[in-house]
Design brief:
The complex is a heterodimer.
Chain A: E1 2-8, E2 11-17, H1 23-30, E3 49-52, E4 55-58, E5 71-73, H2 86-93, H3 103-116, H4 122-128, H5 140-152
Chain B: H1 14-18, E1 34-40, E2 46-52, H2 54-57, E3 62-67, H3 68-73, E4 105-106, E5 112-118, H4 121-130, E6 132-137, E7 161-168, H5 170-178, E8 182-193, E9 202-208, E10 213-218, H6 223-232, E11 242-245, H7 261-273, E12 277-280, H8 283-289, E13 293-304, E14 310-322, E15 349-358, H9 372-390, H10 394-401, E16 408-409, E17 415-416, H11 421-431, H12 437-446, E18 450-459, H13 467-472, E19 481-487, E20 493-497, H14 506-518, E21 525-528, H15 546-572, E22 580-583, E23 586-589, E24 594-597, H16 598-605, E25 610-611, E26 614-615, E27 627-632, E28 641-651, E29 656-667, H17 674-693, E30 725-729, H18 746-762, H19 774-791
Parallel strand pairs in B: 1-12, 10-11, 14-15, 20-21, 29-30
Antiparallel strand pairs in B: 1-5, 2-4, 2-6, 3-5, 7-15, 8-13, 9-10, 9-12, 13-14, 16-17, 18-28, 19-20, 19-27, 22-23, 23-24, 25-26, 28-29
The chains are: A alpha+beta, B alpha+beta.
């Protein structure tokens, strides 16, 4: 067991965790932040993407014990004061989601892309999102949503 | 008020999904829950000699371990096939028992034999490692082509043959072939796919010791049907003591139609151990045990005249059922496949013969399109081959054989009510700039690349379906759908549907329909589904049926509401009901111009009397309240159709196939929400393209699934796909009041042959098997180069 202190969606959290607890395990099972999803357990599908210190990572393969002192943002922390983030708005407007399961990871990954590149091309969006699998949308409207968000941010 | 049907309304469900507030089964936790881990067979075929749980039972945190023996002692029933198919000789199909936990034998890798319940997931996992199962391993039947000549897997099922089914007329087809100028032959393997909904299957069970009611939260496309099967066939509990809830479900694509072993076992066990149970599949468990799709070996022949008229078609198929026959397992390769075998064409004579066989692989069942993609792939590939052999243009040969008058009696079963196949193909041709292909091909060639163009025209029979027809064909239930529409006294509306959304957007589309019918703002309409305790029994969502069957039940229930509202309004407005018109949410008497809103009428319906300012005596014979239900059973299937065209560019040095342009023109009749329908097409295309270029479920000779992770099974990713160019034509369905046709499966049905026709076109007509991976294409390019060099 190890004690860690992290900041999750702006709130300080102090927890005793097991050495093998993953970040996704901490979020879902201990903090009840179930917006972060587990689609594969092998860091292939990307449904579990969150931000750690501002960078997108796959939380199913990060050990929580390694993240003492980090700032973590999950899909639950993206909207502020009840106002959706432009990326969330864009996904809604462009119908960038269907079943919603891959969506949290997709949105968190896309937000990080726009931090790195303000106006990405279609190909740059597709290349960046290569680590996030969606089975519903065929990605067409996801790409459209990321472009829409880029134009608004 | 403007009509909402036809509008690009943004989805009501999105906000919760986008803020992490979706509630999927694995998000649910119940106080004092135990965690389940299933012990599964590592062998494809074996006898169970002994299961020793003694050491595992002593492991930390273990609550209980149950095996097939316990299932048998408690007489818990197994999983079933939903359709009874007869062989050509009239004999009944042969299905093995499929107990929820195997007792005597296991028949595929992943077949569950025991289950551990423990206080924590880690403890359940650790204990599962200590369960010792002693197997006598037998030689697996893993190869579909050899299954009929292999040892019988199940006692009493000779040749591993479930049925040998025929649709059509062999004699008439032979006569047609005798008249042919040319017979085109094609042998294909329709590759096995794994549906891979992004949410792995899961169930959370809560047994209430006071009410003796079991609540099963599960990842299902049809919770009512799951409850029925679990109760009537599983014997887990009477239906009134069993509540099945499918909350937010993260995709289905057919793989969540079936009730699975885990739901039966955990529901039964929860009552036994008097504790809640949580089970969540790991991705590899999903790969191993979710139902798979496709997996056919087909020999097809097309009889043609020299000028490209079709005379007859033969389809001889061996279909893999996997180890057991499940709900749609037996009908997918027969009535969902056979009738569509002749495609969108006038075909004077035809037959489909299907032998469905058991193998030591995961059960095969409906996967998006279910039977229709396999049929469309076969006919559209052979039509292209015919065009090539006759030196005709692929569009010309299709146009030549399209029906132009509707209703069109298709060769094998269907009476297609409406369509315009010529208009669809013409539109696709124009949108795809078909005529500019040769220029683009030259450009590609100048860069050392190969370019190909592929065309597909399809129809499909969906919106399943009319109960009298499906029951005659062997279905164990009627495939109607239910709806209930409830007005609250204060004017908001709740719509209950028996269908289920796992991405299809019912909360939006169905609210649009109800808003138009009732003249109530869409914000004031909620759509509820997925809970057997809320709303009436329903048949669920598959086969593109939600709107064409479930949506129409909502329309009909709304019409009943309006009719009753007219009677109440008439009484309030001192007129007769036939003097009352209903428009835009208002009941109006034309001659007096007096009116009441539907909200006022709803309020009045709950206050059936006179007191102070309330003056709303109900008409004689009417009961208080404004709640109506409807069960809609359509007169026929719905028949969407369309034409797709794509272009690929191949790099012969690497074999990489770049999907360069994809144009889809579809006819779905009336479109309720174009935003949502386009999304359905996009997603369908991705899955069809996945089958054509990437996806392939592969078992080795010993029956091990060697593609059981995302590192081995290639899912289409964002950088594999292009933007899609969509167009629509519209001929309204005549069999429902909205004129709608199903749209969920069309993309998947059309995309696979479209892409493969383009790849084969680029390879100069050289046949290549599904999927056209870079390795296969590279080899084909090398052979082409060699052949060309020898010719020169």
């Amino acid at each position: 067991m190890k004690k860690i202190v992290v900041e999750v969606n702006g709130k300080k959290v102090s927890k005793e965790i097991q050495d093998h607890t993953t970040l996704s395990g901490l979020l879902r099972d201990i903090l009840n932040l179930t917006g972060t999803h587990i689609g594969c357990d092998t860091s292939q599908c990307g449904a579990c993407v969150v931000h750690v210190d501002g960078k997108s990572i796959k939380s199913c393969t990060a050990l929580a014990a390694d993240l003492d002192g980090s700032k973590i943002t999950t899909i639950e922390g993206l909207a502020s004061n009840g106002k959706l983030h432009p990326m969330q708005e864009a996904f809604k407007k462009m119908h960038g989601l269907q079943c919603g399961f891959c969506t949290p990871g997709m949105v968190m990954s896309a937000v990080d892309l726009l931090k790195n590149k303000k106006n990405p091309s279609d190909q740059e969006i597709r290349d960046w999102l290569e680590g996030n699998i969606c089975r519903c949308t065929g990605y067409h409207n996801i790409v459209a949503a990321v472009k829409e968000a880029a134009s608004k941010m | 008020m403007a009509s909402l049907v036809g509008s690009r309304v943004e989805r009501k469900e999105d906000k919760r999904f986008l803020t992490g507030k979706g509630r999927y089964t694995s998000d649910i936790n119940i106080a004092n829950q135990t965690y389940a881990i299933f012990i599964r067979s590592p062998h494809a075929r074996a006898k169970i000699k002994k299961i020793d749980t003694s050491k595992a039972l002593k492991s930390s945190g273990v609550v209980e371990i149950l095996t097939g023996e316990h299932i048998a002692q408690d007489k818990i029933g197994g999983l079933i096939a939903g359709w009874a198919i007869r062989s050509e000789d009239g004999s009944e199909m042969k299905c093995p028992a499929n107990p929820p936990l195997a007792k005597d034998s296991v028949n595929f890798v992943g077949d569950p034999v025991a289950v551990v319940f423990a206080e924590t997931l880690d403890e359940a996992r650790a204990a599962a490692e200590l369960v010792k199962v002693d197997y006598k391993v037998l030689k697996a039947v893993s190869n579909l082509g050899e299954a009929m000549n292999s040892e019988a897997i199940h006692d009493g099922i000779d040749k591993n043959l479930c049925y040998d089914w025929l649709l059509g007329d062999r004699q008439k087809t032979k006569e047609a072939f005798d008249k042919a100028d040319k017979i085109i032959k094609l042998d294909i393997v329709n590759n096995r796919l794994i549906p891979n909904a992004m949410e792995p299957r899961a169930c959370v069970i809560d047994y209430n010791t006071a009410s003796e009611e079991i609540t099963c939260y599960t990842t299902s496309q049809n919770p009512h049907l799951s409850r029925l099967i679990m109760s009537a066939f599983g014997g887990v509990a009477p239906e009134n003591k069993l509540r099945v809830v499918a909350p937010d479900v993260g995709g289905g694509f057919g793989s969540k139609i079936n009730l699975y072993n885990e739901e039966i076992v955990c529901s039964w066990a929860s009552k036994k151990i008097e504790r809640p149970i949580k089970w969540v599949a790991e991705r590899t468990e999903s790969f191993l045990t979710d139902t798979h799709g496709r997996d056919h070996i087909t020999h097809a022949e097309l009889a043609v005249t020299n000028d490209g008229k079709f005379l007859g078609f033969k389809n001889e198929t061996i279909a893999n059922l996997g180890a057991y026959a499940r709900v749609f397992g037996t009908v997918t390769p027969t009535y969902l496949f056979g009738p569509c075998a002749t495609g969108v064409y006038i075909m004077p004579a035809a037959y489909s013969n299907v032998k469905a066989v058991y193998t030591n692989t995961a059960p095969v069942d409906a996967y998006r399109g279910a039977g229709r993609p396999e049929a469309t792939y076969t006919i559209e590939r052979i039509v292209d081959k015919a065009a090539m052999e006759l030196g005709m243009d692929p569009i010309e040969i299709r146009m030549k054989n399209f029906p132009t008058e509707f209703p069109f009696k298709q060769t094998l079963v269907h009476q297609i009510d409406s369509g315009d196949y010529v208009a669809g193909l013409n539109k696709a041709k124009e949108m795809a700039d078909y005529d500019g292909f040769s220029t683009r091909k030259k450009e590609s060639e100048s860069k050392g690349k190969l370019r190909g163009i592929g065309v597909t025209s399809y129809f499909e029979a969906c919106g399943i379906a009319p109960s009298p027809v499906v029951m005659m064909l062997g279905c164990g239930v009627g495939l109607w759908e239910s709806a209930e529409v409830r007005f609250n006294p204060t004017g908001q509306v709740t719509v209950y549907t028996g269908s289920h959304s796992h991405g299809q957007s019912h909360q939006t589309t169905f609210a649009q329909i109800a808003a138009d019918e009732l003249g109530v703002p869409i914000e004031n309409i909620d759509v509820v589904h997925g809970d057997t305790d809320k709303g009436t029994f329903g048949m669920g969502t598959y086969g593109s049926r939600s709107l064409t069957v479930g949506g129409i039940a909502i329309v009909n229930a709304c019409k009943k509401i309006v009719n009753k509202g007219k009677r109440i309004a008439a009484k309030m407005l001192e007129a007769s009901p036939d003097e009352v018109d209903f428009k835009n949410g208002e009941f109006v008497v034309a001659k007096s111009n007096k009116k009441k809103t539907i909200g006022e009428v709803a309020f009045a319906s709950y206050l059936p009397g006179v007191r102070d300012e309330v003056k709303s005596p109900l008409p004689e014979g009417d009961e208080p309240g404004l709640i109506e239900s409807s069960f809609f059973d359509p007169a026929n299937f719905s028949f969407p159709a369309g034409s797709h065209i794509c272009e690929v560019e191949i790099d012969p040095e690497t074999g990489h196939v770049k999907l360069d342009k994809y144009t889809a023109v579809d006819d779905f009749g009336t479109i309720v929400n174009p935003l949502i329908v386009e999304g359905q097409v996009h997603g369908g295309l991705a899955q069809g393209i996945g089958q054509a270029l990437y996806e392939n479920a592969q078992y080795d000779d010993s029956g091990q699934l060697i593609t059981a992770s995302y590192m081995d099974y290639t899912m289409p990713r964002a950088d594999d796909l292009p933007d899609f160019n969509l167009g629509f034509t519209c001929t309204k369905a005549t069999t429902n009041p909205l004129g709608v046709k199903g749209c969920g499966e069309a993309g998947t049905i059309a995309a696979t042959p479209t892409v493969m026709n383009a790849v084969i076109n680029a390879l100069g007509g050289k046949e290549i098997s599904l999927p056209a991976t870079a390795e296969k294409v590279w080899k084909a390019c090398k052979e082409m180069k060699k052949t060309n060099a020898e010719a020169a």
